[in-house]
Structure formats: structure tokens, C-alpha cells
């Protein structure tokens, strides 16, 4: 019998599609802007995949769940058809990080072998503050920014990791818990901090690595070459709509066009000028309805390889389908690709992810009129 503590941050990821770049301290604003909870859906996806694995694995371990009532855990477990559930914490009317920490303390007091959670980097911080490097933790990705090394690539991957760990097919590794200051992030400032280390079941095929930041004079020069390549392409299509994703590589494209592009937002260019800054999903949909020719310029996250699903959630499956997969332009320096051997997608839409994965490789602009085919993680 394995005892697993399970907790959901029910507001994790809500701020993504409405352009808030997180939900810490702005959950009410996210709701006002029309955001809908996604964590419960992501959690149920992982739990149902795990239940299927248990049901189809000979001599699968028996699971004794410790959890929180309602939307912080119990509802999702029951939706996934688990029955051996012990509720050890009742959250306040408005759930908070305090409820998460209190629940984890009770999990540990009840002898939990592992804490499974659904959330983002902030949730990982709260849990690791209680568990330290004593009790392993594992995350179902549901935040806006997930740069820590405790998350599965997708909810289904997290289920696979959990089963492999419980059947002793894989062991534990020490990984970094990284988080951004969301207030600075929303102000278009990148403030990354390493908070602590945690132990997590480690399977490199299914686990995401921590984000890597590659810097240096040579990097800046290569980014300028890439930007010149994109500048020519954009200026050759003055009536088209070009969406510029987050990151310093794409920001260099803005500089080449003499446009003040945000570092962390999604901006839109048409007719040689900015027609939208730091756009949320709805604003993107409105712009796309006005232009027949659309292009999306993105750079994968260093080391992790995520192109969609981390830090750019306004690019929802609906938005991506309207743009067209063939109209995505990926850019990265050779040094970045050396640390990023695979491209990854976690859009929240399994059919769209499957369509992207089926391509097996995507071209990436790596310099002035230079491209490289990069493999997509299956």
C-alpha cells in the first residue's frame, strides 16, 4: 500500500489566457476578465490516466489517497473513480496557499510516501517549503509558468512517471524549485529566483527540466542575425499580421523593426507598426478575424523545449488553429538548441498536440537565412 497526498491549487493557470501571466494575488481580476478554472480538468486528466495504468498493470500497487475536500482534491479523485480516499483537511471558503501548506503538513503527519499536486511553480514552492528534501513531490502542470523540475511534461506523462516510481522502475532525483516574481513578470520584468531543492521521481523522457537562460555576446550577435532574417520577411508582407511571442530572442525582432516589443507578452505587428501589445486570448481572436495572412513567431524555452503551453497561454488551441500550424515560425540560437534537443507542446488540447507531434520535426531559424530541423518530443 502506497500513501499519496494529493492537492490541487484550484486557481492555478487561470490568469494565462486572459494575459495576467499568473494568478498570484489577481484571481478576482482573472475571473472579471472571463478566466475559467483549468486545474481541476488537468488534474482529472492525470488521475484518469493513472487509474487506467493501475487497472492494466499486473501487480499494480494499491493506493491509499490522502487529500483535501472539494475542489482541492477529493472531487477530482472521485471523478477519476478512486474510492480509497481519506480527507485530512477542510479548506477555507476561499481556498489559499495556507490551505495547501496545512494540507501537506497533515499528509506528512499521516505518513504520506509522496505528495502529488496540480498547480504551477508557486504551488511547488508552497509544498516544498513543508516537504523539503524529505518527502518526494511530483507536479501535474497547470500553472502559467512552470520552470521548476518537478513537473511532468503533460498530465498524462505525470501519471506515467507516478506509476513507474511506485513500481520501482525509476528512482528519485534532486531538482530545483524556481519561481518568478509575478508582479514584476506582469510589469514585463524577468525576475527568476532559485528557492530550494526538492526530490522528485525522475524519468527524463516524461519530466521537464528547469528553464535554462543562455547569455553572452555571441548570443546577442546571433539573435541580431535571426532578427534581420525576420525583419526582411515581415517587411515583405506589409499587409500580413505577425504575432511576436515572449522572450528575448523574439524581442530582438522588435528591435530590428524599431518597434518597442514587450519582453514577456504577445504583441502584434501589421503595416509596419504595433497593432496590439501584451495581448490576451480574446484580443488575439479579434485581431485574427481582421487579417487573412497570419504568422506567429516563437522561441522555445531554453532546455525545456516548450513552444506552446508554458508562459504563452493566450495562444490557446483556438488561436493556434486560426493561425495555422504551418504559419508558426520558430527561432533559436544554435547555443540554445544545443541545450534544447527536443521541442515540446502542451496546449491542453490532446488532438492539437497530437497533430503537432505527428510532424516529428519542425524548422527553426538559427541565423540569417539559416535553418535547422529540430525533433519534436513524442
Distance between the termini: 32 Å
Arrangement of strands in the largest sheet: 10-9-8-11-13-15-16
The total count of helices amounts to: 13
Shape: elongated
Number of strands: 16
* Percentage of residues in helical conformation: 25-40%
Structural summary, described in words:
The protein is α/β, with parallel strands linked by helices. It has two domains: 2-201, Rossmann fold (3-Layer(aba) Sandwich), CATH 3.40.50; 217-375. It contains 13 helices and 16 strands. The strands form four sheets. The protein has a seven-stranded mixed beta sheet, sandwiched between helices. Strands 3-2-1-4-5 form a five-stranded parallel beta sheet, sandwiched between helices. It has a two-stranded antiparallel ribbon with strand order 6-7. Helix 2 packs across helix 6 (155-166), helix 4 (97-109) packs parallel to helix 5 (121-131) and helix 10 (281-288) runs parallel beside helix 11 (317-323).
Reconstruct the topology from this structure.
Layout: E1 2-8, H1 27-32, H2 39-56, E2 63-68, H3 74-79, E3 85-89, H4 97-109, E4 114-119, H5 121-131, E5 137-141, H6 155-166, E6 172-180, H7 182-186, E7 192-201, H8 217-235, E8 241-244, H9 248-256, E9 267-270, E10 273-276, H10 281-288, E11 294-298, E12 306-308, H11 317-323, E13 328-331, H12 334-339, E14 344-345, H13 350-357, E15 361-367, E16 370-375
Parallel strand pairs: 1-2, 1-4, 2-3, 4-5, 8-11, 11-13, 12-14, 13-15
Antiparallel strand pairs: 6-7, 8-9, 9-10, 15-16
Amino acid at each position: 500500500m502506497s500513501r499519496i497526498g494529493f492537492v490541487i491549487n484550484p486557481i492555478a493557470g487561470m490568469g494565462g489566457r486572459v494575459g495576467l501571466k499568473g494568478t498570484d494575488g489577481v484571481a478576482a481580476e482573472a475571473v472579471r476578465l472571463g478566466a475559467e478554472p483549468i486545474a481541476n480538468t488537468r488534474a482529472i486528466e492525470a488521475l484518469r490516466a493513472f487509474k487506467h495504468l493501475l487497472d492494466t498493470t499486473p501487480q499494480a500497487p494499491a493506493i491509499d489517497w490522502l487529500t483535501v475536500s472539494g475542489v482541492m482534491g477529493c472531487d477530482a479523485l472521485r471523478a477519476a473513480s478512486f474510492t480509497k480516499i481519506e480527507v485530512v483537511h477542510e479548506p477555507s471558503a476561499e481556498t489559499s496557499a495556507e490551505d495547501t501548506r496545512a494540507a501537506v503538513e497533515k499528509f506528512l503527519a499521516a505518513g504520506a510516501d509522496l505528495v502529488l499536486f496540480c498547480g504551477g511553480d508557486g504551488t511547488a514552492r508552497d509544498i516544498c517549503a513543508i516537504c523539503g528534501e524529505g518527502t518526494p513531490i511530483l507536479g501535474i502542470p497547470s500553472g502559467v509558468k512552470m520552470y521548476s523540475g518537478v513537473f511532468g511534461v503533460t498530465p498524462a506523462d505525470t501519471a506515467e512517471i507516478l506509476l513507474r516510481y511506485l513500481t520501482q522502475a525509476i528512482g528519485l532525483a534532486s531538482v530545483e524549485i524556481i519561481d518568478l516574481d509575478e508582479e514584476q513578470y506582469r510589469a514585463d520584468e524577468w525576475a527568476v529566483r532559485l528557492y530550494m531543492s526538492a526530490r522528485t521521481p525522475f524519468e527524463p523522457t516524461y519530466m521537464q527540466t528547469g528553464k535554462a537562460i543562455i547569455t553572452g555576446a555571441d548570443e546577442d550577435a546571433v539573435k541580431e542575425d535571426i532578427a534581420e532574417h525576420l525583419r526582411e520577411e515581415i517587411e515583405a508582407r506589409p499587409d500580413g499580421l505577425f504575432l511576436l511571442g515572449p522572450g528575448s530572442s523574439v524581442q530582438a525582432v522588435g528591435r530590428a523593426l524599431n518597434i518597442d516589443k514587450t519582453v514577456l507578452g504577445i504583441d502584434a505587428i501589421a503595416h509596419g507598426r504595433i497593432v496590439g501589445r501584451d495581448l490576451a486570448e480574446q484580443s488575439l481572436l479579434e485581431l485574427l478575424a481582421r487579417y487573412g495572412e497570419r504568422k506567429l513567431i516563437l522561441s522555445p524555452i531554453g532546455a525545456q523545449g516548450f513552444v506552446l503551453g508554458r508562459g504563452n497561454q493566450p495562444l490557446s488551441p483556438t488561436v493556434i488553429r486560426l493561425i495555422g500550424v504551418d504559419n508558426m515560425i520558430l527561432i533559436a540560437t544554435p547555443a540554445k538548441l544545443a541545450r534544447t534537443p527536443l521541442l515540446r507542446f502542451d496546449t491542453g488540447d490532446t488532438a492539437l498536440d497530437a497533430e503537432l507531434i505527428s510532424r516529428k520535426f519542425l524548422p527553426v531559424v538559427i541565423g540569417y537565412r539559416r535553418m535547422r530541423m529540430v525533433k519534436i518530443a513524442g
